[in-house]
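Researcher: We're teaching a course module on how sequence relates to structure. For the next exercise, students receive a sequence and then see the predicted structure as tokens, so they can try to spot secondary structure elements on their own. Here is the exercise chain.
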Amino acid sequence: MNLNDLAERFGLKVYSGRNELTRTIGGGYVGDLLSDVMANGRKDDLWITLQVHPNVVAVAALKELAGVVLINGREPAPETAERADKEGVPVLGTALSAFEFAGKLYALGVRGR
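Model: And here is the predicted structure for the students to work with:
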């Protein structure tokens, strides 16, 4: 499954990285501590978080994550969306909680690693 498929299926809002939505999701990671994601996130994971500041983009780019999904209706700070577009990091959003969104991904066969 790629990010575009996921966005269409769940009505995710795309904030940045529209040109990167063909990325394949290799797994998932839920976390709000940047250091935790840096230590445990893996290449091609979809990161589910409530963090909206620019450092999210730095971590996602460093770990070569498939993208970032902001939960609970959160929107990225303007500088976050701008940086994400420059770095080619897809940032999407959902009104669902992390628990609900992760459950939906799990039901589709996306697993944490």
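Model: If you want an answer key for the exercise: The first helix runs from residue 3 to 10. The beta strands are 13-16, 27-30, 45-49, 67-70, 91-93.
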